[in-house]
Amino acid sequence: MTPRDVKPPEKRRAFLLYYARVLLREARSRRGQNVDWMIAGAARARREAMTIQPAAKQMEMF
Hints:
By secondary structure, this protein is mainly alpha-helical.
């Protein structure tokens, strides 16, 4: 893995939440088919996203 491949936690978290939404949208559009793996993948992506803590922002000085 090169330094270019490492993404900030905020971007990784945003991508995982986006990916979960896409999987759920596709599962809804394919009703009646075997979509259990999509639903499980969306749940797994959401769980992983929730474990990522965004970097703490430095408080503004007044």
